[in-house]
């Protein structure tokens, strides 16, 4: 094992060889970072007021508003353990920022490993899957086959009309909007351009214009967790339809109900523009008495379909499909109001139930 000292602190990484400040050290396979202190400086009780933070990038690029990587930090004797909630990426630079009371400079390190070219990440889908979208579209999702590295959206995602890039399309964010597994990233079209008669909408108009044709391009070279990169540039062609500014309606749903006494799944076919990813958290099944039915939820992204398989067989009687009224489509419209609604109207609509109920019965075999 190799030990390296910096400003009185000692960093210990186990198993895999990597780089810290240009020198080789060893890193744990579970990405746990152990900082050995020169003495018992703090107790676990005091640690909350003197917590080091782990960041992606280089310390010279640090900004006070930058979001730290989620970690668990514990103190055992003079060993400070920093364990990221997610595995750290190979071929990526990180740094640790210590509390001011420690009087220690930031430590930066780069995790390096020989890259295997056997399993490069790919773009699986771009949502909405339809190529015909209204001009008031508010968001896209890019779905990847693997966990991906952050910081590539601005450089790798562009919107083109013919061969000209459409500028100021997406909201510039200091941190990309990823799901927990970093397999799905959200692209938000500037709401101030989508919403009529406000700011950028008045100055620039909408990024997507009715009757026009566009290409959403995801460039190759987007890095995955093991240093592999996407090898192909992916292009989604888009034809823009007139705006759709109306609240959602359950009449657009199609239910395929299961058979009584079986554990068949109930499936719900949604309109192509309904946000199927939100359905995972905002749709559930309850009995006629309101008891939540236990089971497994699944979504089919390509079909924009939600399904639920019960833990126990379906019984006689009625069930309810409960939908939260704030469930949205990709335009920001929900079951309470359209996205492009005045604030006063939204306040008035906060009254009343927060869910919709669609009653259904299992089929008789």
Name the helicity range: under 10%
| Low-pLDDT residue spans | 1-27
Strand order of the largest sheet: 1-2-5-8-7
Q: Note the overall shape.
A: globular
Based on secondary structure, the structural category is: mainly beta
CATH topology of the largest domain: Immunoglobulin-like
Alpha-carbon distance between the two ends: 67 Å
Mean pLDDT: 81
Any overview of this molecule?
The chain has 365 residues and is mainly beta. The chain has three domains: 4-111, Immunoglobulin-like (Sandwich), CATH 2.60.40; 123-241, Immunoglobulin-like (Sandwich), CATH 2.60.40; 250-360, Sandwich (Immunoglobulin-like), CATH 2.60.40. The protein contains six helices and 26 strands. It has helices spanning 44-47, 153-156, 191-194, 199-204, 276-282, 343-348, and strands at 4-6, 9-12, 16-20, 23-27, 33-36, 53-56, 71-76, 79-84, 92-97, 107-111, 123-127, 132-134, 139-144, 157-161, 164-165, 177-178, 184-188, 213-218, 234-241, 254-256, 266-269, 283-287, 295-300, 305-310, 319-324, 355-360. The chain has a five-stranded antiparallel β-sheet with strand order 1-2-5-8-7, with no helix packed on it. A five-stranded antiparallel β-sheet has the order 4-3-10-9-6, with no helix packed on it. Strands 12-19-18-14-15 form a five-stranded mixed β-sheet. The radius of gyration is 25 Å and the shape is globular. The termini are far apart.
What secondary-structure arrangement, pairings included, does this model have?
Elements: E1 4-6, E2 9-12, E3 16-20, E4 23-27, E5 33-36, H1 44-47, E6 53-56, E7 71-76, E8 79-84, E9 92-97, E10 107-111, E11 123-127, E12 132-134, E13 139-144, H2 153-156, E14 157-161, E15 164-165, E16 177-178, E17 184-188, H3 191-194, H4 199-204, E18 213-218, E19 234-241, E20 254-256, E21 266-269, H5 276-282, E22 283-287, E23 295-300, E24 305-310, E25 319-324, H6 343-348, E26 355-360
Parallel strand pairs: 12-19
Antiparallel strand pairs: 1-2, 2-5, 3-4, 3-10, 5-8, 6-9, 7-8, 9-10, 11-13, 13-17, 14-15, 14-18, 16-17, 18-19, 20-21, 21-24, 22-25, 23-24, 25-26
